[in-house]
Design brief:
296 residues; Arc Repressor Mutant, subunit A; five-stranded parallel beta sheet; 10 helices; 14 strands; elongated
Length: 296
């Protein structure tokens, strides 16, 4: 299959039967074709595979034309698609207008982010409050864009959140054991004695990040930058909230051990250390209130 003038790369054929061949950089445009998995060598001319969940026909037509010119595979989905069905598709990014999902939109978003932590989610919707945007981002959305917006800006945001797919890095998939916990990068999950901790996307990203530090303390600012991709502003407690949630799950599943250790004024460290029974720490954990993030 020819992907650009004067160069050829072997990639699986994904053109629908009867579709006319196209030349140039848009040789593998997806249009409304089913999204299929690309295997083998990554081709720089093949962009992210995008699923779109939106009901604005005008917006969809304009966006589809832009994606076709780029040669990106894309697929417009029915508003009735479930997060489970979407999670089973081979896509790199999901563009979703959550306003069409009704009252179940937050559960839908959280379930998708939990089931497919490798998929980048961009919420592109109408007017929203600060609380709604904060909620969506903390449930696992990678970006939030308000309508009306220009398709080129949306495409630029897709490029940013999926940049790692065009510059693939070798990902360490070997399990890591700490105390009774086994971290499985191949499954995006952690287990205690064979039972899943049922971590959310952010919680798993946090435990994997801390585990890669090899027991060293990671500053809060560094954790924030790695997980949220930006600079942590003053008084932001996002890191603390997710550390608290992760710590609670770990210590409830493995009460004989302590895993996430706080270094006040610096950050956090992950290491398995036997717990002291009947300690003041146990009493504090039992009565510790659930932290809530500060208002943005």
């Amino acid at each position: 299959m020819e992907t650009s003038a004067g160069s050829k790369r072997r990639v699986p054929r994904t053109r629908a039967r009867g579709a006319a061949p196209r030349s140039g950089a848009a040789a593998s445009s997806g249009g409304a074709l089913p999204v299929q998995e690309l295997r083998g060598e990554v081709d720089e001319t093949v962009g992210p595979r995008v699923a779109i969940l939106d009901s604005d026909s005008g917006f969809l037509v304009v966006l589809a034309k832009r994606l076709e010119r780029l040669g990106w595979k894309h697929r417009v989905l029915s508003p009735r698609v479930t997060s489970k069905t979407l999670a089973s598709m081979e896509v790199d990014a999901v563009i979703v207008d959550i306003s069409i999902l009704g009252a179940q939109r937050w559960k839908w978003l959280a379930r998708l982010c939990d089931q497919r932590p490798d998929v980048r989610v961009i919420v592109c919707t109408g007017a929203s409050t600060v609380a709604e945007r904060v909620c969506g981002l903390r449930l696992g959305a990678d970006d939030w864009l308000s309508k009306p917006c220009h398709p080129e800006e949306l495409i630029a945001r897709i490029e940013v959140v999926t940049a790692h797919r065009r510059r693939p890095e070798q990902r360490e998939l070997e399990p890591v054991s700490i105390g009774e916990v086994e971290i499985r990068p191949d499954q995006y999950q952690a287990f205690v004695r064979g039972r899943s901790l049922r971590l959310t996307r952010r919680e798993y990203q946090l435990i994997e990040l801390l585990s890669r530090a090899g027991g060293e303390v990671l500053p809060r600012e560094e954790i924030y930058e790695c997980l949220w991709g930006g600079r942590m502003i003053r008084n932001d407690r996002s890191v603390d909230v997710f550390v608290h949630k992760l710590r609670r799950k770990l210590e409830r599943a493995s009460p004989g051990w302590r895993y996430v250790h706080t270094h006040f004024g610096i950050g956090y460290r992950l290491a398995g250390e036997p717990a002291e029974r009947g300690s003041v720490r146990d009493l504090l954990i039992a009565e510790e209130p659930v932290l809530e993030p500060l208002a943005a």
